[in-house]
Design brief:
- The chain is an all-alpha fold.
- The chain has one domain.
- It is built from two helices and no strands.
- The radius of gyration is 31 Å and the shape is rod-shaped.
Length: about 80
């Protein structure tokens, strides 16, 4: 009896795996996965670009601040 239950359990598990593989292998699902992957890559690229822009903006602000300080020092020396 126990052997029969184990065999049925194995067959059921095998059936579930085969069903899942069949479902995932359909063209519609593969297309959906490809579309989602493309969207994820686009989002990652956009986040990367925004991050780079934020870094550049911070660097620009730092450079502007240093230039202002330098100009103030030059003005003080010329006065």
């Amino acid at each position: 009896m126990l052997n029969m239950l184990l065999l049925n359990k194995q067959n059921a598990s095998r059936f579930v795996v085969y069903s899942f593989v069949w479902f995932v292998s359909t063209a519609e699902i593969l297309e959906h996965v490809y579309t989602m992957e493309s969207k994820i890559l686009q989002l990652q690229e956009a986040i990367s670009i925004k991050g780079d822009n934020d870094i550049l903006r911070i660097q620009d602000q730092h450079v502007k601040q240093q230039l202002k300080q330098l100009l103030l020092k030059v003005e003080k020396k010329t006065l």
